[in-house]
User: What shape does this take?
Amino acid sequence: MDPLTQTDPATSAVRPAQKRLIEARDVSKIYTVGEQTVRALDGVSLTIHLGEFVAIMGPSGSGKSTMMNLIGALDVPTGGAMELDGRNIATLSSDALADLRNRTIGFVFQQFNLLPRTSALRQVMLPLLYAHPRPADAEDMARHRLEQVGLKDRMDHYPSQLSGGQQQRVAIARALVNNPKLLLADEPTGALDSKTSEEIMALFCTLNTEGITVVVVTHEPDVAEYAKRRVLFRDGHVVEDIQQAGFMGRAAE
Amino acid sequence: MNLLDSLGIALTALRANTLRSILTTLGIIIGVASVIVMVAVGTGARSEVDRQIASLGSNMLVVFPGSTRVGGRAGGAGTRLPLSERDLQALREKIPGVVAISGLLQGSGPVVYGNANWTTSFMGVHDQFNEVRDWPVIEGRGFTPNETKTAARVALVGKTVVDKVFNGGNPVGATIRVMNVPFQVVGVLDSKGQNSFGRDQDDVIMLPMSAARGRIVGRSKLVNDNVGNIHVKFDAGMDLAEAQALMENLLRQRRSIKPGAEDDFNVRNLSEFMRARTSALTTMGWLLAATSAISLIVGGIGIMNIMLVSVTERTREIGLRMAVGGRRRDILMQFLVEAVALCLLGGLIGVAIGVTTAAVVAMSAQWPILIAPNAILMALGAAALTGVVFGFFPARRAAHLNPIDALRTE
Assistant: This one.
């Protein structure tokens, strides 16, 4: 009846045949706010392999956003080791982190974060402008990704001329344009209606079956159901890490 | 990200706030415009002064007869002993380095040719006058030494007289009546334009010194061979100050002035006099330079202010750019390029306004318009530099934003 399959967290991460993309070992992150110290993450260990579809869940203040920042190489831990694509992010310079984000990660945000007065095509080309070396066929790459997300006819449209769902598709095309290993989405459906949300999540599933690793940070259980693995954070700890059928699994039933 | 990409982003951002961008650059616009006007007016005025000095004749000293002073009341020039042919002869023979020398008697009155008549000014001169004043005869010929001595009834006419009396036709060989005395025109003078007081220097008829004295201007009561002022041209190697001292000594001796007594004549270097008048222009130039420096600084602060606003407004955009791989240097360059583009935009508007103003000033002052291309480049360079200096702090602030905080900003 229940499509979710409870798995022992200790064994779930062990799939030796697959390459590890993200490996957090005893990672902690401590903020100092005035006199107070806040332990946002407290000894978290988490491994995500290439090709996984992971939903990171938890209430606000659970540490899930902090974990997302570390996975996205936007921040470095204060304790433990955080490896992304085999590199310890704590040892990297800000330029090297920027390059790592550029090559390895595609970001999708709740508020889309599209640039105003910039055509869809230009939005999608943006990460390529920051790439080293810069690809010669940036425009073709961007066109291809826009076609892939179903916006073939909207390439010259500005964000103000696009619906919310279309804007998020542009953002996804932008996240994909540099062939990243990881698609990292922060509440990707938070600003969308339920029908559009389903379309966007279905797109993530398709992309995952094509081989890209997807990590979605969300507090919505509906959204998390599309993932094949669920990681629940509470008070800076991982309290639950389970494999589940995911959207594709259920569709097959 | 290369410079061209940054420029594209900058122009998009500036276009999004067109009015704000233009208002922000007002200080730069004023600064650059005043640089352009300053340089154009300064060089234009200087070249005008140079032209006037050249029209006076170069390397020239002029001796004026002195004025009487009775009980503290000064009479007009020439009320003392006038300068005579013998004074002129002595200067020619005893002062070294004299290239050419001539007296100058002035008067005015009617000239008639056929049924045309015109009131003009007369100059009684020696044959070397044209050389002394660098004032060549362009048609016909000048006076011969003999003509100056024998009161020959020959005349040289200026361009304005040709236009007014001869309707622009060739006057050489024609006989005109000057104050009812017939003179034959033997040459036409080159055009000199207006002098520094706006008088038309071409509205003139030159007559041989002796003819002018005898028939037109009249003799002095004190000497029968007065020559008015004496204009002396020296060769280029002569030190004019030394020449002036020699001339003063010689004239004091000739005119028996006791040691300690005042000269009854003046030796003047007119070019020096003209140059002194340019110092006022130089002062004005410095004032404008100070104005432009201050407006560039004030404009720069305006730029810095608006760039800080822009960085705050676009914090999320900065966060996004960092998330997709923008390095700090990329962000820094983007905002620096935007500040410089803003300043250059102001600079270009300033150049347009400056050039227009300079043209209007030049037209109303009847100066030549001199807008040096390197003045424009200098002004634009100053504007760009302002952008770099005042854009750096906001750009640095943008580049050092934390991407997480930046992305979270509403």
